[in-house]
Amino acid sequence: MSLVQCPDCEKLYAELDQHIDSVKDNMGVLINVLHKAQEIFGYLSEEVQQHVSERLNLPLSQVYGVVTFYNFFTMKPKGRHQIKVCLGTACYVKGADKIVERLQDELKVPMNEPTPDGEFSIHAVRCLGACSMAPVVLIGEDDYYGRVTPDEVSKIIAKYRRAE
Ligand code: FES
Where are the domains of the chain? Predict the structure, then answer.
């Protein structure tokens, strides 16, 4: 594709590039700072977003836009123990929805909300790469439970309660 020639082309492209660079840098810094904020606070509340917006001198709408665009950012607090239930196809056909129901009954919270004591939250995830063990539950980053039945749910949760 040939570029349209114009009398001030060089100057105009320089201006555009300057703008692209400034936007690129802002986005990079913003995403980096939001990652750090989420690591520190656990989630990105309105107050934290406001703080980031003021410190980076960016409009709050831009911060909010980035937070809502990327699904690794969350605006809701999570439990200290995050219980991830795989709802991928293999797990679903093996009854993962029944595991979710039992977890909600036991903990008395909807999905993605922390228990009142802040200890647990339940999240749906896609394939965890352990389909032969379906249905699979992951607690925290490393504790995998395979071929989970609804009746095992309370025993699994109790392990984390006892670990206090
Ligand atoms: S579908 Fe659940 S681990 Fe693959």
Answer: 9-69, 81-162
